[in-house]
Design a protein that fits this description.
By secondary structure, the protein is α/β, with parallel strands linked by helices. Helix content is about 40%, strand content about 20%. It has two domains: about 210 residues, Rossmann fold (3-Layer(aba) Sandwich); about 170 residues, Rossmann fold (3-Layer(aba) Sandwich), CATH 3.40.50.
Length: about 400
Amino acid sequence: MRIVLIADSFPPEKTSAAIQLRDLAKEIVNRGHDLTVILPSSTISCRYKITLVDGYQVLRLKSFKIKDMNKIRRTVNEFLMPFLMRYNLSKSPYSNKSWDIIIWYSPSIFHGPLVKALKRKSNSKAYLIIRDIFPEWALDLGLIKRGITYSFFKFIANYQYKLADTIGVQAQGNLVYFKSFMKRQKPVIQVLPNWLGKSPLDPCSILLNNTPLSGKKVFVYAGNMGVAQGMEIILNLAIIKKDRSDVGFLFVGRGSELIKLKCIAEEYNLKNVIFRDEIHPNEISRLYDQCFAGIVALSHHHKSHNIPGKFLTYMQNGLPCFANINAGNDLADLIRDKRIGCVSETNNLNDLSNLFDRFILEVNADRNISDRCRLFFEEEFSVEKVFKKIIKATEI
């Protein structure tokens, strides 16, 4: 089949979304389908740029910059993005191409007009992979308030929902939010968990033996450090545990809260904490080989259910999970039921400290926990299983 995948994140970006979409693209091609990936780009000088990557075509369409900028300008640019992409697509060799299946990834919530144009032209099925329920999560975290701004984003989000024949959400709990849509025949809402392909084994540029964390049980956090993660309580935990000579904390990545976290670490002269810039995803497995556990952090203000991509990388590499997340998140039940780590939902530092001590004892005593993590990944989060679900949902 001819399949088009629309997104705004893809390698060479190093985000979890980019890696997931790369792995999905590889799986589509491995199954014998013809794939085109369509992306916006602010860096190309012409209307479009076509590259061949691992047997599929990547079509980058000229658009405005939509990342790492102030919120107002980003909103304007994202709103204009699908219209510019439609116009520049019409000037490309793909202007008359039709597809059997349209898959698009949200965020961004603004791809709707482009999807509508392709769907009308191709008369094809459309599958929306939605990871963040926006603007709801921004409302929960206090980043926006109910009013004109919220209503605008809500309208845009609902518009893209109505274009989909099937919507894949990442957790069972997210189905509750879409119950009003589920009362209709269209779209169909189903759980489509996050996924990863086989992990490469490139050497890692971070060698903990050459750092103050050498010989310690290292708790690693690899990913974005922003408001949505609520990372400050993890750093406060490191402050409480600074006199423990057997444990350390490694934070790898970037984000809006990174400078704040570094300042706190410097203020308390934390010798048990180090920060490193984000690394290439192919280095992740060798990084985790040096660590004791993986950290998942989500702000307690969240009301939606979220299973972060970093959690999948921990499971794939047999790394037990230590988590501080919002109450009621489906992820808490998964961690407890599968016995793959410990999780706190109280956002209380004393609770987290006690859980931390218990976690270390339990992991030391449990020889099979790494095997359970890997088995859980294979059963739930393999890219093969996810793509089969998408294909089944889009069967004509």
